[in-house]
């Protein structure tokens, strides 16, 4: 028997009689009362086991970097994704911009803008000829090779081909800026043309509606170089016209597109004592008699 065991008294403390069975029982333990109490206190002070969270900083950084790249990519798409509208030879198109503004595009014209960035900046790149009807809103800028036109809400016509840049204001007010940074403000019926030096020449038109006659397939010219008229015929009828390089005539007149190209060429040639030869359905030559 262990030396630390204690013998239980056989006598019942209340009756004084023999405790019977219990008098034969011995309880063995190794710790006294104070040791047991200290052990209980220690157990109560112990914190329950919990999960230890380990942060994977590399993974967190990678996730943040990926989110930033996605955001920057989305902004880049919004800012730089272009929509391009092209009207081919013999074709007129109506381009409808995100704010409801419209552009009637003459043949061989190109219009480009950024649809997802339109609400932040109304900017257009344009070449060819177009009649613009712009809804009111923030400032709209139409850029071309030889200049740009800045408007708020108005209608105007732009001619931008080769080295020529012409703007006619029909309603509202527009500002024309040349490639040499000269500026001119146009009100209704005023017309501006940028010359070879970047200078802006402004004049008032007696019949400004003739400028946009092409929208209704009527083409008018006032002291226009004959070569410019021939190029317009090529665009409208989708034909090729060869001509001598020494043609230095100026033409004033008009032609409707609904008449055959042969009739239009004949009218033009007769004015200057010229003639034309038809080689095929879409190839012609202008020759001097």
Question: Can you describe what's shown?
Answer:
The protein is of the alpha+beta class and 289 residues long. Among the domains are: 6-45, no CATH class; 217-289, Phage tail protein beta-alpha-beta fold (3-Layer(bab) Sandwich), CATH 3.55.50.30. It is built from 4 helices and 20 strands. Strands 3, 4, 5, 6, 7, 8, 9, 10, 11, 12, 13, 14 and 15 form a 13-stranded mixed beta sheet that branches. A 3-stranded mixed beta sheet has the order 17-20-19, covered by helices on one side. The longest helix is centred in the first third of the chain and has 24 residues, at 57-80. The protein is elongated, with a radius of gyration of 46 Å.
Radius of gyration: 46 Å
Give me the strand/helix succession. Answer: EEHHEEEEEEEEEEEEEEHEEHEE
CATH class designation of the domain at 217-289: Alpha Beta
The CA-CA distance between the termini, in Å, is 146 Å
What is the 3D form? elongated
The helix content, as a percent range, equals 10-25%
- The fold-level CATH name of the domain at 217-289 is Phage tail protein beta-alpha-beta fold
> Count the helices. How many?
4
Describe the biggest sheet? 13 strands, mixed
**Low-confidence segments, ≥5 residues, pLDDT <50?**
1-10, 21-25
Strand segment count: 20
Q: How much beta, percentage-wise?
A: 35-45%
Average residue pLDDT: 84
């Amino acid at each position: 028997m262990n030396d630390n065991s204690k013998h239980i008294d056989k006598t019942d403390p209340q009756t004084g009689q023999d405790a019977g069975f219990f008098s034969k029982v011995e309880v063995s333990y190794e710790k006294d009362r104070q040791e047991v109490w200290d052990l209980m206190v220690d157990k109560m002070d112990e914190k329950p086991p919990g999960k230890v969270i380990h942060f994977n900083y590399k993974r967190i950084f990678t996730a943040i970097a990926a989110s930033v790249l996605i955001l920057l990519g989305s902004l880049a798409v919004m800012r730089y994704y272009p929509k391009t509208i092209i009207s081919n030879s013999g074709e007129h198109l109506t381009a409808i911009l995100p704010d409801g503004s419209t552009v009637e595009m003459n043949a061989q014209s190109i219009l480009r803008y950024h649809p997802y960035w339109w609400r932040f900046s109304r900017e257009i790149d344009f070449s060819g000829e177009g009649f613009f009807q712009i809804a009111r809103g923030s400032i709209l800028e139409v850029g071309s090779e030889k200049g740009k036109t800045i408007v708020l809400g108005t209608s105007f016509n732009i001619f931008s081909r080769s080295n020529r840049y012409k703007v006619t204001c029909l309603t509202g007010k527009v500002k024309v800026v040349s490639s040499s940074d000269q500026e001119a403000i146009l009100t209704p019926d005023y017309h501006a043309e940028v010359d070879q030096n970047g200078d802006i020449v402004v004049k008032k038109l007696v019949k400004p509606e003739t400028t946009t006659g092409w929208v209704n397939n009527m083409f008018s010219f006032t002291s226009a170089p004959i070569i410019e008229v021939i190029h317009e015929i090529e665009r409208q009828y989708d034909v090729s016209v060869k001509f001598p390089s020494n043609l230095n005539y100026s033409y004033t007149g008009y032609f409707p597109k609904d008449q055959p190209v042969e009739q239009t060429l004949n009218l033009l040639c007769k004015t200057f004592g010229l003639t034309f030869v038809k080689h095929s359905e879409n190839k012609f030559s202008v020759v001097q008699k």
